[in-house]
Write a sequence for this structure.
């Protein structure tokens, strides 16, 4: 099980490098909903969320191919995608304030986040289906994306949403210099 957790974490980590650049490669409205549109911390949380969900789809078919199934799949996947955000931020912000933006630390924390959420996901896979789990999970996933879309297009002027490289918030809200 430890191998599976670590392999899943590595694959998810690698998939982040693809999802990080998809909007830049194919700038369109749909991709702005799913992938980072700038280098703000918030947009990277969207990347983590989407990457976990995308890998969950891949993992589902891999497990199905090997005839491994469990009653509850989508709810733990949704929970995993949600808890990854506060787990990453709780580790990232203190280290960022101590050391500044250091890519090695950022990448290490990202991989550690994926290890933690994969471990928790396997610990909390439910032996029985939760009533309405698919409906609740799908509503939850869509709700989180709606919130992310709103915050991409109607971005609050807070540090977490600020892209220091392009000096903008969200997708098209540039900082006006005096």
């Amino acid at each position: 099980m430890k191998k599976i957790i670590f392999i899943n974490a590595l694959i998810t980590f690698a998939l982040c490098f693809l999802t990080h650049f998809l909007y830049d490669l194919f700038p369109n409205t749909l991709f702005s909903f799913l992938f980072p549109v700038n280098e703000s911390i918030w947009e990277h949380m969207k990347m983590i969320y989407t990457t976990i969900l995308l890998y969950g789809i891949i993992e589902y078919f891999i497990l199905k191919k090997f005839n491994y199934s469990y009653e509850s799949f989508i709810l733990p996947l949704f929970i995993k995608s949600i808890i990854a955000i506060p787990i990453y931020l709780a580790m990232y912000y203190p280290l960022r304030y101590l050391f500044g933006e250091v890519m090695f630390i950022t990448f290490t924390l990202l991989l550690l986040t994926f290890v933690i959420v994969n471990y928790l996901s396997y610990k909390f896979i439910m032996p029985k289906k939760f009533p309405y789990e698919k409906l609740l999970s799908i509503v939850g996933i869509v709700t989180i994306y709606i919130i992310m879309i709103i915050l991409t297009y109607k971005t609050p002027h807070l540090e977490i949403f600020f892209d220091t490289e392009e000096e903008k918030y969200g997708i098209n809200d540039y900082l006006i210099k005096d």
User: Anything to note?
Assistant: The chain has six helices and three strands. Strands lie at 162-163, 168-169, 173-174.
